[in-house]
Amino acid sequence: MRPKTPEEMYSFLTHAFWTRVYGDITAASRRKRLTEHDIAQIERQAIDLMAGALESAHEFPEFDARAVIDATLREGREGFNVIREARTQQIAKEH
After folding, report:
1. Residue 25 dihedral angles phi and psi, to the nearest 5°
2. Alpha carbons 95 and 91: distance in angstroms, whole number
3. C-alpha gyration radius of the chain
4. Directed axis angle between helix 6-31 and helix 65-94, to 10°?
5. pTM reported for the whole predicted model
6. Which of 51, 69, 59, 55 minimizes the C-alpha distance to 6?
């Protein structure tokens, strides 16, 4: 499926991003108990992968794909911050 609008592309990229993150965390957690370092590494890899999409932005001349990719990256970073804060609060409650 080739996105025809910025909204379609945003939806596709966001879904792909979070699916990748969830899959990577699930796979890693089956191998061992994850540390904050492990989770941060998965987060960085997901951000790097999405940032790599900027190289193909020119393939979508119908709209500004760079802006859509940037918005997806922003949402990913913000999401990671929210999730990290929730983990920090959970750990504080347990101790």
Report:
1. -65, -40
2. 7
3. 15
4. 40
5. 0.87
6. 69
Q: Which long-range contacts (CB under 8 A, 24 or more apart) does 40-45 make?
A: 43/80
Cα separation, 94 vs 74, whole angstroms: 30
- What is the rounded CA–CA span in Å between residue 18 and residue 54? 18
Q: Which sequence spans correspond to the domains of the chain?
A: 6-94
Low-confidence ranges of the chain (pLDDT < 50): none
Tokens of 72: 């997806």
Q: Are 21 and 45 in contact (CB under 8 A)?
A: no
- The pLDDT value given to residue 86: 95
Which residue in 13, 34, 50 sits closest to 83, CA to CA?
34
What's the burial of 21, exposed, middle or buried (CB within 10 Å: 0-12/13-18/19+)?
Answer: buried
E strand intervals along the chain = none
pLDDT digits over 27-53, tens only? 999 999 999 999 999 999 999 999 999
